[in-house]
Each structure stands twice: as structure tokens, then as C-alpha cells.
Design brief:
The chain is of the alpha/beta class. It has one domain: Aldolase class I (TIM Barrel). The protein has eleven helices and twelve strands. Strands 1-4-5-8-9-10-11-12 form an eight-stranded parallel beta barrel, surrounded by eight helices. A two-stranded antiparallel sheet has the order 6-7. Strand 8, helix 5 and strand 9 form a beta-alpha-beta unit. Helix 2 runs parallel beside helix 3, helix 4 packs across helix 5 and helix 7 crosses helix 8. The longest helix has 18 residues. It is globular.
Length: 338
């Protein structure tokens, strides 16, 4: 007798019963952009359906996310003014810290308010760290000077109430630097998400519009080479050793091999970020009628979970949560029912 795997694909109910990977709203994190000085939400042209929030629209969006059971939100600040060292990142009255306090007050304990700990939104050069000039005149991103800014930024975010610090700058030693300053200043219980395997990807393009990035050039001297898989495992191990409570692979869909490696070896949770370019490609293809939008969204996030992500940062989080809350199958009437 031949094997007949199709037996388990015969009906929607059977397929649902034997599915190896499932989605749940609690495993989804919604990235949110909060813009300083705007009275209303502003659309992001390269990311249809995503906006730069005002404080009021952010609070409404968080209330909706909480009601849908989404696991968390990741906040990014979009300041009105920038400078060389990203002063707005450590200003208690800067947009990210103000938004964090408002988000925590709105969410209560319904979801986890997370904050992006990186300087790129706040610097006038758009890099993720402090820029210095060498004795030969070479301009470079100064790793250790950047760590000092990250330490200050970590304290500002923790003081504002952030419940998880997302270290996305890809500076060597960033987790250890932030963990030590938190522990020394009464924030030993504040967890760290280490963006451990973050690649220098072309898929970040729409994000640059979302945060009004000032970047010229690229970030290839600190973000990872897309060609490297083993290096991803090395970076993840380093972040875990330095004290990361969770580690991240970013982007997601082009790096499912790196994600699977991390999931197989990491003693801490592994998350993945379905980045702006991944979102925009699905939206663009669907808008042109080339793909089934809902199926593509669901398949893309299921693939990330299947590869091993314990949670997924995705701009589709709210929409997915709505779909997950709805019925998946019609319920037939019981035989003999009157």
C-alpha cells in the first residue's frame, strides 16, 4: 500500500487539525512610528496603510491592539529636530520618551510596550551611532562612543517606562553595555531584546521614509553582510552571552535559514522582524492584482513562525489579529436540531 499524505489535506477541518504551525495574536508585535508635532496621523506613501502617528492616534491604535490581544508594540520616534549625537533620544521630553509614557498609560498590562534603542531616527547624519573622524580624515561610526550614548538612551527609556528595550544599532558590545547600566541604576528587571543578526538589507527602504531618515551612504560597516550565515549564529551567541533576554533576526523572509539556526541553538526566545520592504512588496503586488493579498500575508507570517520565530514584528499584526479572531469555518447545523 502506498502512502497517501493527501488524506490529511482532504478538508478544511482536517487541514486545520493537523497544521504544524499556528498563529496567535499574542505572538505578534506591531511596530509604530510616532511623529513629534503632528496633530494627526500622516500616511507613509511607501507603506500603504501604515502611518506616522500623533500621540492621540497612537493611543487609539494601542487600545485597538490591546483589545485584539496583540502581544506588544514597538515604538519608533520621529523627532522634529536632529543633531550629530541624537540628543532627542535621551531627552525626557523627546518624542520617543513622551510616547513611551503615554503608551504605557494607555496599554496598562494588556500588552508589552517596547522601544527602539538606536540613534538613527535622531541623528542628522542618519547613522545608528556617533560619527567620528580618524587621524587620516576618514569618517566612521565610532563603536565605543556610540555605546556611551546607548547607555544614556537605555536609562531614558527605562525611566519612561519601556517594558522591553530593543537594541537595534548593531554596535559590538551593545547588550553588555546596556545591561550593566540598567543593573547599576535600579532597572535590573528591564529586559533586553538584542537585534543580534541584523543584516545590511535593501528591504529597509520604506522604513527610511517612515522615520524621515537623514542617511546618506550605507550601514555595511556595522550591519551584517547578507552573504553570511555562520556569522549570524556568532552574533546571536554573543548577545546571549552578554545578557540578551530575547534575540532578533532581521529581516525575516530572506533570512529564514539564519532564523532556523537561531531557533535551534538559542536558549532564549528568538524573534524576527518582517521589515518594511517585505510589507511593501506584498502590498504592491496585491494592489496590482498579482497575488491574493490575504493568503500572501498569512503565508508570509506562517513561514516566519515555521522557521522558528517565537514572535514576529509585522506591520500586518492588527489585520492578522482581526482575521484570527474571526471564524475559520462555517458551523453546520446539528442533525436533528429543531
Amino acid at each position: 500500500m502506498i502512502d497517501r499524505p493527501r488524506r490529511l489535506r482532504a478538508t478544511p477541518a482536517m487541514r486545520r487539525l493537523v497544521a504544524e504551525t499556528r498563529l496567535h495574536p499574542a505572538e505578534l508585535i506591531l511596530p509604530m512610528f510616532v511623529r513629534e508635532g503632528t496633530p494627526e496621523a500622516l500616511p507613509i506613501s511607501s507603506m500603504p496603510g501604515v502611518v506616522q502617528h500623533s500621540l492621540d492616534s497612537m493611543k487609539r491604535a494601542i487600545a485597538e491592539a490591546a483589545e485584539l490581544g496583540i502581544g506588544g508594540v514597538m515604538l519608533f520616534g520621529v523627532p522634529e529636530h536632529k543633531d550629530a549625537v541624537g540628543s532627542g533620544a535621551t531627552d525626557p521630553h523627546g518624542i520617543l520618551n513622551v510616547a513611551t509614557r503615554a503608551a504605557v498609560a494607555e496599554a496598562g498590562d494588556a500588552l508589552v510596550v517596547q522601544t527602539d534603542l538606536c540613534l538613527d531616527e535622531f541623528t542628522d547624519h542618519g547613522h545608528c551611532g556617533v560619527v567620528s573622524t580618524s587621524s587620516t580624515g576618514e569618517v566612521y561610526v565610532d563603536n565605543d562612543a556610540s555605546l556611551l550614548r546607548y547607555r544614556d538612551m537605555a536609562l531614558a527609556q527605562a525611566d519612561a517606562g519601556s517594558q522591553l528595550l530593543g537594541l537595534s544599532g548593531m554596535m559590538d558590545g551593545q547588550v553588555a553595555a546596556v545591561r550593566s547600566v540598567l543593573d547599576e541604576n535600579g532597572h535590573a528587571d528591564t529586559p533586553i531584546l538584542g537585534y543580534a543578526a541584523k543584516y545590511a538589507s535593501a528591504f529597509y527602504g520604506p522604513f527610511r521614509e517612515a522615520v524621515a531618515s537623514s542617511l546618506t551612504g550605507d550601514r555595511k560597516t556595522y550591519q551584517m553582510d547578507p552573504a553570511n550565515r555562520r556569522e549570524g549564529a556568532r552574533e546571536i551567541l554573543l548577545d546571549v552571552e552578554e545578557g540578551a533576554d530575547i534575540v532578533m533576526v532581521k529581516p525575516a523572509m530572506s533570512y529564514l535559514d539564519v532564523l532556523a539556526d537561531a531557533a535551534a541553538s538559542s536558549p532564549v526566545p528568538v524573534w524576527a522582524y518582517q521589515v518594511s520592504g517585505e510589507y511593501a512588496m506584498i502590498e504592491a503586488a496585491a494592489a496590482n492584482g498579482w497575488i491574493d493579498r490575504r493568503r500572501a500575508i498569512e503565508e508570509s507570517v506562517v513561514s516566519i513562525r515555521r522557521a522558528g520565530a517565537d514572535a514576529v514584528l509585522t506591520y500586518f499584526a492588527v489585520e492578522l489579529a482581526r482575521w484570527l479572531a474571526g471564524p475559520t469555518l462555517p458551523v453546520p447545523p446539528r442533525r436533528g436540531a429543531v
